């Protein structure tokens, strides 16, 4: 089977990593790059950096990686769909729900592969967590809680923390639980002087009854990427910064030492950290994209799922604006 001819549009902070992975992923061949801002990170080598998506399409690509600012996703995606080009579009899918719906419709009507770059789903810790949840290791799932915090990123200018960071948490929560959001309540704050929110706290419930909460900000002096799934048999904690997964078993041993019981509770269970295959998540994402184009769509994040995530993000913004819980 011949390699897929791939073009990358947007070779900035995220796109440069896509360029490297296209070059190194079996089944992909890099044939064109485009970025009106040029080659800031020097990833093009001896390749010409084209000015726009029209030039990228004219280079004869079969698939494209879209890593431009979110506000440009719709126009570029529609042109790619019209040209018969499969696309992996970085998260979030679009700036607005209407733009997202237009992208989904275009790829559906053209019968093309449209995937979204929710790379957290390819993190070894979350892949193993999902597998163990599906296998019933936790029994019934009660709650999914996420914390995604870190210093302010200068490179983000077109969206707030909800669509840049919380989008990961919304996507992975629905994926792990296998359920859509039923309702969400959120509170935001703007402390950086920019027009968009830079802190958010959100709580909600999924259609299957699982409780969720998300803490996300750009003001923490340290980076944190933690997902905790609590169920009837204990809790699984995935740290995707360090790619670790730890199981905290519910108490099976009675604590008779009062001093310890005051700190740890009246019973304790085993704690296990799993050994994981440590592969670069973005490489896995590219392999999944290649597989989808070749017929196995089970491993990508379809743009239709990304559209549902966008609905939840809009509901979070609506809730923060009106001060009420929003039902989806």
TrEMBL record:
PANTHER family: BILIVERDIN REDUCTASE A
Family: Belongs to the Gfo/Idh/MocA family.
Boundaries of every Gfo/Idh/MocA-like oxidoreductase N-terminal domain copy: 4-113
Stretches assigned to the Gfo/Idh/MocA-like oxidoreductase C-terminal domain: 132-328
Gene3D superfamilies found in the cross-reference section: Dihydrodipicolinate Reductase, domain 2, NAD(P)-binding Rossmann-like Domain
The organism's place on the tree of life at top rank: Bacteria
This protein's name: Gfo/Idh/MocA family oxidoreductase
GO molecular function: nucleotide binding
């Amino acid at each position: 089977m011949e390699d897929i001819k791939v073009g990358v549009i947007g070779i900035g902070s995220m796109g440069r990593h896509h360029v490297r992975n296209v070059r190194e992923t079996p089944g992909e061949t890099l044939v064109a790059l485009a970025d009106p801002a040029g080659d800031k990170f020097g990833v093009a080598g001896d390749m010409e950096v084209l000015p726009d998506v029209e030039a990228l399409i004219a280079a004869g690509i079969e698939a494209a990686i879209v890593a431009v600012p979110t506000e440009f996703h719709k126009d570029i995606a529609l042109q790619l769909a019209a040209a018969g080009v499969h696309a992996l579009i970085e998260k979030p899918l679009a700036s607005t729900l209407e733009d997202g719906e237009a992208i989904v419709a275009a790829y559906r009507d053209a019968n093309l592969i449209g995937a979204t770059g929710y790379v957290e789903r390819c993190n070894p810790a979350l892949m193993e967590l999902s597998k163990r949840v599906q296998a019933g290791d936790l029994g019934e799932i009660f709650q999914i809680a996420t914390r995604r915090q870190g210093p302010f990123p200068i490179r983000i200018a077109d969206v707030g923390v909800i669509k840049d960071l919380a989008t990961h948490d919304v996507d992975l929560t629905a994926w792990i639980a296998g359920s859509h959001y039923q309702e969400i309540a959120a509170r935001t704050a703007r402390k950086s002087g920019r027009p968009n929110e830079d802190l958010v706290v959100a709580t909600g419930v999924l259609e299957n009854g699982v409780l969720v909460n998300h803490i996300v900000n750009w003001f923490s002096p340290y980076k944190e990427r933690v997902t905790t799934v609590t169920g009837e048999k204990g809790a699984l904690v995935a740290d995707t910064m360090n790619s670790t997964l730890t199981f905290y078993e519910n108490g099976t041993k009675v604590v008779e030492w009062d001093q310890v019981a005051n700190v740890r509770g009246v019973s304790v269970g085993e704690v296990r950290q799993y050994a994981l295959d440590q592969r670069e998540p973005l490489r896995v994402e590219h392999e999944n994209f290649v597989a989808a184009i070749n017929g196995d769509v089970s491993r990508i994040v379809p743009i239709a799922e990304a559209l549902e995530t966008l609905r939840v993000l809009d509901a979070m913004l609506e809730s923060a604006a009106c001060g009420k819980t929003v039902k989806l």
